[in-house]
Design goal:
Layout (H helix, E strand, L loop, with lengths): L6 H21 L2 E6 L3 E6 L15 H13 L18 E10 L8 E2 L3 E10 L11 E8 L4 E4 L1 E4 L4 E7 L4 E11 L1 H13 L4 E9 L2 E8 L9 E3 L10 E3 L9 E9 L19 E2 L1 E2 L4 E5 L19 E4 L2 E4 L11 H8 L3 E6 L1 H13 L4 E2 L11 E5 L4 E7 L10 E2 L6 H6 L7 E6 L9 H21 L4 E5 L11 H4 L1 H15 L5 E3 L1 H6 L11 H15 L6
Parallel strand pairs: 3-17, 4-18, 21-24, 21-26, 26-27, 27-28
Antiparallel strand pairs: 1-2, 3-5, 5-9, 6-7, 6-10, 8-9, 10-16, 10-18, 11-12, 11-15, 12-14, 13-14, 15-25, 19-20, 22-23, 23-24
Helix pairs in contact: 2-7, 5-11, 7-9
Length: 552
Amino acid sequence: MVSFYCPNYAAIFVFLAVFVFFYVLFNTDVLEFQHKGSLTVPVPRRHLTYRFCSFEPLSPEDALEERLLLDSIAWPETPSLPAPLSLEQTTDPAHSRFTVLPERGGQQWHVGDQLEVMIKMYDFRGRPKKSGGDVLFARLHNRSLGAGVAGKVLDHLNGSYSAVFSLLWEGSAQVEVTLVHPSEAVTVLKRIDREQPDRIRFQSGFHSGSVSETTICNVCLRPTAQSQCNFTDLTTGEPWFCYKPKNLSCDTRITNYLNGYKGKLEVNEKKLFKSGINMKVSIRVSGSSSVTVLPSFSDQPEVKSNIVQSGPVGYYYKDVWQSISGPTVRQFNSPSVINHCLKGKVVHLYGDSTVRQWFEYLKKSLPDLKQFNLHSSVRVGPFMALNYADNILVTYRFHGPPVGMSASVPTIELHYIANEVDRLVGGANTIVVFGIWTHLSSFPTELYIRRLQNIRRAVVRLLDRAPDTLVIIRTGNPKTVTPVTVLFNSDWYSLQRDKVLRAMFKGLNVHLVDAWEMVLAHHLPHNIHPQPPIIKNMINVVLSHICPQKSS
C-alpha cells in the first residue's frame, strides 16, 4: 500500500472538522434525555431558530409532540422573489377570481348537499400564480335570513384553492371569499416571528423603600452585559425574564406592563400589508356568487347525517347559532332561565380579555349576580361575583405573562392557568372555562405549545380526581387587522395557534366553543372582541353544555 502525507490537506481537514463541530453545536444543539432510566433519546432543540429564546428541556414525549405539532402547521413555502421585492409578482385579490362549480350531474342544490367553489389567484400583472400559501377565508351567507356558515379552504399548492360549504338552509345563499394575506406576506410574517420574538416590549417596576426602578422584561430577552432576573415559574417551567435593576434585587419586582411595539418591516415588505389592496380584501366572483338551495329530499329536518366529517361545527340561522357537532343550543333569553341553569354552580373563567367578555356578559345579564370590589385592575382582575340566593359564584382571572396591557398590573395577580386549575377541587357543580391565544400570538409557537401542555396536564389531573367537572375551552377568532397591528395580531398567527389548540385537546373530555367559526360565519365585522350578538350566542353554547336539553 502506498501512503502519502500533505500538510496542506491536513490543515484543510482540521479546519473542516472544527467548522462542522461548531456548526452542529450552534445550529443543531441536540440534547439527550433519559427515558425511563434505560434509553437515551436525542431531541433537537428546534426553538434555537429564535436565537435568544431559552426554554427548559422537554421530556422525550413532549418534545416529540412539539415536533409533530410544528410539522402539522407548517405553511407552504413561497418561491423566493428577487430583491428588491416587486408588488407586481405577488398575489393580487383584484385580479383573482372564484367560481361556483355546478352541482354534479347538473342537478339542483338541496339542504344537506356540499357546495364547492374554485378559487384562482393571480398577481398584479394578471398572471396566474403557480404556488400556494395564500391565507383565505370563505363564508356562505344570507343576510336577510340571518344565516351564515364558514367554508373549508383547501390549498392545491399550484395557485388554485377549493372552498367547500355545507348547505344548511333553504333559500338563497351567497359565497364570499376573502384574501387575508398573500403568500408572500406569510413568508415575511414567518421571518418576523423567527427574528423578532421580542417585538412587543414589556417592563416591570421594582420598588423597595424610597427606591424605584424599571427594566425591560420578556419571554425572549436579548443577551446584554446587564444581568437578568429569572422569573420562570417553578411549577410549570413557564419562562419570564427581566433585566436586573441596577440598585435593587430581583425580588423587589411589583408590577408588569406593556411598553410599546418595536416590530420592524423592511421597506419593500410594507407593501405586502396594505388594507384595501392585499390584506383582508374580498375576491370577486366569475359568474354568479349566489345559489338557490331547495329543501332536502327527505322530510327529516335533521341535517347532521348529511354533513361530511370535515364540515362546520355549526351555523347561524335567524341570527341564532345552530350546533351540528355539539349539543343542541338552547336559548337563554332571560335572567331567570340563566339563573335556573347556574343555580348551585361555581364557574371559574381563566384567560384573556375575550374570556373576560363572558364574565361581563353574565354580570350584565344577571341583576342578582353582584360583583365584589376586590380593588383589582378593571381589565385584568381578578373578579368575583355572587348570587347568594341561588348560590351562584362566578370568578375571572387573567392568564400568566405575557400580558399585553398598557396599564400597570401587580405581578402577584398574574397566575398561570395550569396552577389555578391544580388548586380546584372540582366536581359536578364546577365549571372551568379558559381561553388563551391572542397575547401569545407574537411569541414563538413553541411557547404556546408548552403553555397548552401544562394546562392540559392540569386538566387531566382535575378530571382524574373529579371526572364530573365540566371543562370548556374558548378558541381564538378572526379580528380586525391593520398595517400597524399586523405584526402582532395577524389572523395568520391566530390561525396557526388555533390549529395547535384543537390538536392539543383532541380526545379529552373537554368542550370547545368554536369562536373561530362563530365569528367567521357571522355578518358582523371581525373583531378581537366580538360584538354582543356573537357573545350572546357564545354564552348560549356555554350554558347549553352546562344545562343540556333533556331528551324526550
